[in-house]
Write a structure and sequence with these properties.
By secondary structure, the chain is an alpha+beta fold.
């Protein structure tokens, strides 16, 4: 669908689940994509959509990533086979693009019993051409995108903003609530700050990486966009409170899996991020036991 003139929202099937990963095509003097979906996304959705607009995949000159996770960047290989597009991502997520196994190795190091040691990378390494930072402006001919760094889901999660048209392309940066959300791999504290920052932005449209709850659609306008951000903030604050209260309920140290099991509807990585942040804030203590970690409140 065309959200505003020249900015198209493409729903790329996520397997056979009925779920989707979004890709945004910016079509004007130049053709650029925000995110690239999964390995089959180019042939299944992106290429056919561009051809309907009278554009060839070879015309794609830029691929800007909202973050470095496989379901948003694994389609890059197929795109680079037919174009000379430059790849851009925030500096904090660049390592995950160039070393796809890094995220799994880091998760295993942080939470040994909850994430496998030797997970197979989901895509091949991708060379990053342009490194983005907060406040950067990316010129796409007749359109300019501004980089807003809003970490939490990943360390380099960004929102790419077309300020003239009020469009915010957020990828997975704004997770919503319900249906096992939020899903965070980096930091709940950073995510909280990011949602507070985004809540002050003048959003006309908020474009999501998936049909996140509570609205379960990818394109949100004005009031719905503001509500989605506020609900995202409430969700992470509630999760932090629940984890801390669980730690306080017993003097015995608990493993991540033990805490997670007592919080139905939560994500194990998100609970782990809460535990790490509570330690950093001096509200909890982490100890190493038998190649794993136990956590207790202070």
């Amino acid at each position: 669908m065309e959200v505003v003139e020249g900015l198209h929202f493409i729903e790329c099937p996520f397997g056979k689940t009925g779920y989707f990963t979004s890709v945004c095509a910016l079509v004007g003097e130049k053709v650029a994509l925000v995110d690239a979906g999964m390995p089959d996304s180019p042939t299944e959705a992106i290429f056919p959509y561009l051809k309907e607009l009278g554009k060839e995949p070879s015309e794609v000159s830029y691929i800007l990533l909202t973050h470095g996770h496989f379901d948003h960047c694994a389609g890059i290989q197929a795109l680079l086979k037919v174009s000379e597009a430059k790849v851009a991502v925030h500096e904090a997520d660049k390592p995950f693009i160039e070393d796809p196994g890094l995220i799994d190795r880091e998760l295993h190091t942080r939470f040994p019993s909850s994430f496998p040691k030797d997970a197979k990378p989901a895509f091949e390494p991708i060379e990053v051409d342009v490194t983005l930072r907060d406040g950067d402006k990316v010129s796409l001919g007749d359109r300019e995108l501004e980089v807003l760094h809003i970490p939490g889901h990943s360390p380099g999660s960004t929102c790419l903003i077309d300020r003239r048209r009020g469009v915010y392309i957020s990828g997975d940066s704004v997770q919503g609530r319900g249906e096992n959300r939020p899903l965070l791999f980096h930091s709940t504290a950073a995510y909280t700050d990011s949602m507070k920052r985004l809540s002050s932005e003048p959003m006309r449209y908020l474009l999501l990486g998936h049909p996140f709850p509570p609205f379960a659609r990818g394109v949100l306008e004005r009031a719905s966009a503001e509500t989605h951000v506020s609900e995202s903030l409430l969700a992470v604050q509630e999760l932090r409170d629940k984890v801390l209260n669980l730690l306080k309920s017993t003097a015995e140290p608990q493993s991540l899996s033990e805490v997670h099991e007592k919080l139905p509807g939560s994500r194990v990585s998100s609970v782990g991020c809460v535990l790490e942040d509570l330690v950093a804030e001096g509200k909890a203590e982490k100890t190493c036991v038998a190649e794993d970690y136990l956590w207790r409140s202070l």
